[in-house]
Amino acid sequence: MTPRTRSYVTEAIVAGLLFVVSLVVSQAAMRAFRAAGAQPAFYQANFEPAVMMACGRGFVTSPLPSKELVDFLNVTRDNFDCAHLPAAMVERPLTSPANANWYYLYGAAAAVWRVTGVSWTALDVLVCGMSASAAVLLYGLFRLVTTRVAAAGLAMILTLSPANLTHLLSLRDYSKAPFVLAGILILAALVMRPMQRGATLMLAAAYGTVVGIGYGFRGDLAVMVPFGALAVLSFLPGSLRANIGRNALAAAVLLVAFFAVAWPVISGLALGGCQYHFSLLGLTEPLTDELRLTPSLYRFGQHLSDTFADLKVGDYAARVLHAPVPGLCTAEYDTASGQLYFQMARTFPADFVVRAYASILMILRVGLAIPTMMLPMPPFPASATMTAFYRSLSAVTSLLAPLGVLVTLLALMAAWASSIRLGLALTVFVLFLAGYPAIRFDERHWFHLRFIPWWAAALVVTQLLQLGGRAWDRPRLIRAGVAMALVFGLLVITLGALRLVQTRSVGQLITQYVGAPKDILRIHAKDGSSILVDWQPRDYGRSPAHRASDLVVVTLDSSRCAGAGSLGLTVRYDADVPSHDMSTAFSVSRPVAGATPTDVFVPVFWQGAGDRVELRFSGIQLTGAPVACIAQVARVTDGANLPLWLDAQVPADWASHRLY
Predict the structure, then answer these.
(1) Which of 67, 75, 90, 608 is the most buried (most CB within 10 A)?
(2) What span, in angstroms and rounded, lies between the C-alpha atoms of 635 and 643?
(3) Over the stretch 537-589, which tens digit does the pLDDT of each residue have?
């Protein structure tokens, strides 16, 4: 056996051991979570096609599902017997976008159920297998920059981290992890390892295939397609000028492989699929707060809920596009939500960029921390020793977490010191992979990227131990320093230029808000802190559904708002269930005595069906000042001339505020 063969065998043995250990630990964690009362949640109600596939009926749904199937999909029972499907059952092709673009996820679930029988508990083996695969892929990524022992240790630390184990409870969200990691590993190998033309094309095809399959599990993988094509087109070893043909062919092979494999999913997008729905939710205040960003005078909305996005998109479709209100996540919904999203991007370009910058900083900082168990349940494994271990590990890594940015910068400098190509490639990798989660900065969308600062630290430590000062001689250090200065300069200049553009676009928007014609609404004092608003909106819903919206303006009179500190203003709704309550609370700067009144603009909504009211704007509550502080409530009469309706407070000196 040659040394190279022996090395391959050893790597395979280590990878196999990592897979087995991670699989066993993940399965034990799932059993512990269930025993502690935590139940997996991954939109099981949408898994009817998976049941049909497992029962041999194909990728279809039933117009009249049986009670047993309904109970199973509602997770009121754990298992389902295919015998409960009538032999002569009328089947229908898929008409729901929630089904079409989960094709491979449903197929994987159905494959498990064909072996185990249809039950939710049986799917634990699927998500645990994904966790084990992620551990092996992490090992492969770390092996690119460090020793076998260090790579195995780091892979296990991240796999056994509560931040990883807790996400096993969501099969749908966890399923992206192995595909994203596999894609990154393939690209990293292509960029870092010179190889023959045939091997390059094979790996490019493998990348397209992996991402194509992953796209059928989770739509997030769509962003990996242009990223992968750019990487193989620009960063493969060798002179770019001499190898442009090879690089272009590799990019083409990658794209062809992706579209060929992902076609069953892509073709389903004709039904819709909420392509921009989730991006719009990513702009809401809860996720803006997660990015630690300070809001300006405006905000897209406070509610991180499907109901809120549906109301915003329906309003935009009816008011701006003059189209019927689209059904949630239909093709028409994708069209309206996409136009709304890009209208936001054109008006607030600097905010979109700074969200990406914030995402990068947050992931690089948080990634080094190993938190304790994040759900209200006993830690896993449930022992005093392990509880103390996780608590200590969390305390130590939390102290080290702020160094994540520093070690990543050092890794980038090491790459630039090695070569311009590797420096540019690693810079793009870090900026893209840590920046794209800003689209919806919820940890379940980026937990698998926590490895980035650990990978950077492994690169830096290994270089220092193996190369010592040779990695940082004066010419290389100067090159790295100049390159990083140029990168930072470009990032700062880009943001500065976009802020100038945004200041103008937002200033024009606020000017339109202030100058828009308005009708005063009748108001009635309900008590000392709230008023009822007599709002009679125009119904643009399709019978029997009702839908209406308005841009309401609450005017605060400075002469009646004496006091100190901010005011609390809450826009109240009548709602049939808590999930439909769109009540929105603002902290409003108190109007300066003697100044022009402050206007607070708030989009409001009404939705119902028949005689049932699901939600309807009803009034205003004020804290910190008497209700007389509210001078009037009005509505903008020509909403079509204001495409974007946002929450905004407009004081007399609004032009002196930062409009970003």
Answers:
(1) 608
(2) 15
(3) 899 988 888 999 999 999 988 888 877 888 889 999 999 999 899 999 888 88
Rg (CA), the chain: 27
Q: In the chain, what are the helix, strand and coil shares in percent, each to the nearest 5?
A: 60, 15, 25
Cα separations in angstroms, 403 against 342, 374, 433: 35, 22, 19
Give the SS3 label for residue 577.
Answer: coil
The candidate with the shortest Cα–Cα distance to 97, out of 320, 275, 237, is: 275
Separation between Cα atoms, residue 434 and residue 360, nearest integer Å = 5
Residue by residue, DSSP assigns 123-165 as GHHHHHHHHHHHHHHHHHHHHTTS-HHHHHHHHHHHHSSHHHH
Compute the distance between CA of residue 470 and CA of residue 491 in angstroms, rounded to an integer: 30
Using H for helix, E for strand and C for coil, what is the string for 40-83? Answer: CCCCHHHCHHHHHHHCCCCCEECCCCCHHHHHHHCCCCCEECHH
| Cα 130 to the center of its chain, rounded Å | 20
Strands 567-575 and 612-623: antiparallel
Counting other chains too, the contacts that 146-154 makes at CB distance below 8 Å and 24 or more residues apart are 146/458, 146/459, 146/461, 146/462, 147/462, 148/10, 148/11, 148/14, 150/458, 150/462, 151/458, 152/14, 152/18, 154/451, 154/454, 154/458
HSE on the CB side for 232, CA within 13 Å?
35
Q: Looking at residue 561, what DSSP letter applies?
A: -
In the chain, how many H helices and how many E strands? 23, 14
Neighbours of 536 (CB within 10 A): 11
Pairing of strands 545-556, 598-609: antiparallel
SS3 33: helix
pLDDT at 341 > cutoff 80: yes
What pLDDT was estimated at residue 381? 61
Q: Which two tokens stand for residue 617?
A: 């704007």
d(CA 556, CA 35): 54
55-65 exposure pattern, b = at least 16 Cβ within 10 A, e = fewer: bebebbbbeeb
